[in-house]
Design the sequence.
């Protein structure tokens, strides 16, 4: 039996914050994926993933003792405009469990209609469910804060999008599903007392250190702003584009949340727009840091009944320097620079300009850079660059800069391999797994990819083919918002 140690703290906040809602289970479900790593996190043995009880649970067909499913209410700024009423339109918080790692939310996505579904069907398609399942585990493997993935349940139930597609459900884990938009909802409904209840809940449950500060609400806001800045610095360093950075998709604890039309850069293109429906490029790769600040500003408004304007402004001013310092630190690490010297920023920026000009694969370049040897011709790296003269000029500067580093070449290479991933969840890799699942009912590739991406910095020679940049068909896959 799935006896989990439920501790439903959010439920205790009362019905201003959610609507109780049972999942609408799939009639004839089957298990598509289940992740032993996250199962262990919540105290499940891998063997339990193969049981009928587990499938019934992740397909919305049973509500185990202690679980109290609910749809959370929130609102948010979507593409810059305020939408007063959003909420879990197809996901349900099944409950929260107490673990060694703290409280963990269990959230079932695709579990049917709720009062917040508006005109939509409450379902999720297999394609988007596989993408989210893999992304959560991929970012975690890269050391980036994120929701995690436990399982996918599939069904023959058709779901209508641009085409008719198979439906699926994803059971995901998170520290919290409270979003910037959760605060906005109560603020713009003129319920400051409920903003306060929610803030108290977040502080008490997740930020005990903030509770001991002189201004706990300011400490909460500072935590959100700093966690967001750090998170986005990591996204930028690894080349991750979220795609839909609306405030309803921003976790108050700074975890990557709600994967839709996300993408990782293949060729380095600062203006890359991964969301096919983002016509203006609001959430383009190079705009993510600025959008993060815009979103923190929206959060500041939502908390303005609790925190004086001067304190909000002071904290907002910390965002940009923190993000830049974090990003520069990570970029220096990608170049193997343990120290920081005056010319480093230019060296980094000129390399990025070189990558952009040559449309060079970002991940592959940095992985090969790990083997750079001063004085050598560094042919494998050079071969990636259409403009050999520009590469040679940059390599001479890099070579000179490395002379100022203390460690050996081997030490530098090892340190660089720990920050420059070999494996990345490139769109085409997810697409192969999706096609095999949709066309052949073969789910093996999902599990293989999950395993490869769990250790993205390791060589894993048996999986070397997964480190290849995209074939022609995989370069420009259109990923829309529809999911
Ligand atoms: P998203 O763009 O996925 O973050 O979703 C934005 C809002 O639309 C959220 O309130 C979702 O719950 C809701 N939503 C998205 N897809 C569906 C769907 N198929 N059925 C019901 N609500 C949905
Ligand atoms: Mg969302």
Sequence:
């Amino acid at each position: 039996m799935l006896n989990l140690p439920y501790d439903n703290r959010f439920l205790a906040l009362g019905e201003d914050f959610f609507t109780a809602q049972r999942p609408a289970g799939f009639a004839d479900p089957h298990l598509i994926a289940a992740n032993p790593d996250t199962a262990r996190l919540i105290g499940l043995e891998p063997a339990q993933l193969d049981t009928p009880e587990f499938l019934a649970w992740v397909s919305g067909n049973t509500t185990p003792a202690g679980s109290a499913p609910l749809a959370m209410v929130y609102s948010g700024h979507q593409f810059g405009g305020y939408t007063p009423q959003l909420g879990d339109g197809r996901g349900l918080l099944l409950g929260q469990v107490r673990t060694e790692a703290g409280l963990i939310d269990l959230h079932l996505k695709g579990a049917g209609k709720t009062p917040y579904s508006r005109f939509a069907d409450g379902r999720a398609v297999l394609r988007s469910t596989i993408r989210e399942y893999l992304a959560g585990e991929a970012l975690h493997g890269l050391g980036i804060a994120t929701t995690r993935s436990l399982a996918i349940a599939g069904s023959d139930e058709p779901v209508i999008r641009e085409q008719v597609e198979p439906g699926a459900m994803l059971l995901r884990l998170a520290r919290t599903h409270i979003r910037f938009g959760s605060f906005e909802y109560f603020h713009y409904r003129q319920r400051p007392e409920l903003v306060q209840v929610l803030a108290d809940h977040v502080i008490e449950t997740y930020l005990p250190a903030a509770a001991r500060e002189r201004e706990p609400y300011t400490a909460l806001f500072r935590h959100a702003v700093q966690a967001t800045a750090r998170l986005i610095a990591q996204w930028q360093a690894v080349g991750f584009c979220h795609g839909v950075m609306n405030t309803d998709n921003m976790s108050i604890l700074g975890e990557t949340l709600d994967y839709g039309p996300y993408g990782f850069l293949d060729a380095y293109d600062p203006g890359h727009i991964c969301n096919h429906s983002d016509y203006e490029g609001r959430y383009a790769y190079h705009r993510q840091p600025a959008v993060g600040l815009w979103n923190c500003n929206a959060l500041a408004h939502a908390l303005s009944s609790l925190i004086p304007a001067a304190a909000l402004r002071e904290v907002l001013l910390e965002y940009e320097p923190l993000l830049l310092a974090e990003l520069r630190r990570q970029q220096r690490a990608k170049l193997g620079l343990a120290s920081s010297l005056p010319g480093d920023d230019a060296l980094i920026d000129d390399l990025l300009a070189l990558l952009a000009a040559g449309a060079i694969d970002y991940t592959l370049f940095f992985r090969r850079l790990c083997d750079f040897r001063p004085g050598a011709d560094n042919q494998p790296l050079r071969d990636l660059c259409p403009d050999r003269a520009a590469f040679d000029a940059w390599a001479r500067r890099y070579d000179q800069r490395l002379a100022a580093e203390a460690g050996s070449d081997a030490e530098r290479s090892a340190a660089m391999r720990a920050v420059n991933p070999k494996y990345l969840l490139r769109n085409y890799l997810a697409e192969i797994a999706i096609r095999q699942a949709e066309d052949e009912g073969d789910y093996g590739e999902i599990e293989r990819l999950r395993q490869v991406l769990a250790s993205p910095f390791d060589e894993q020679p048996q999986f070397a083919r997964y480190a290849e940049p995209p074939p022609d068909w995989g370069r420009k896959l259109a990923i829309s918002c529809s999911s």
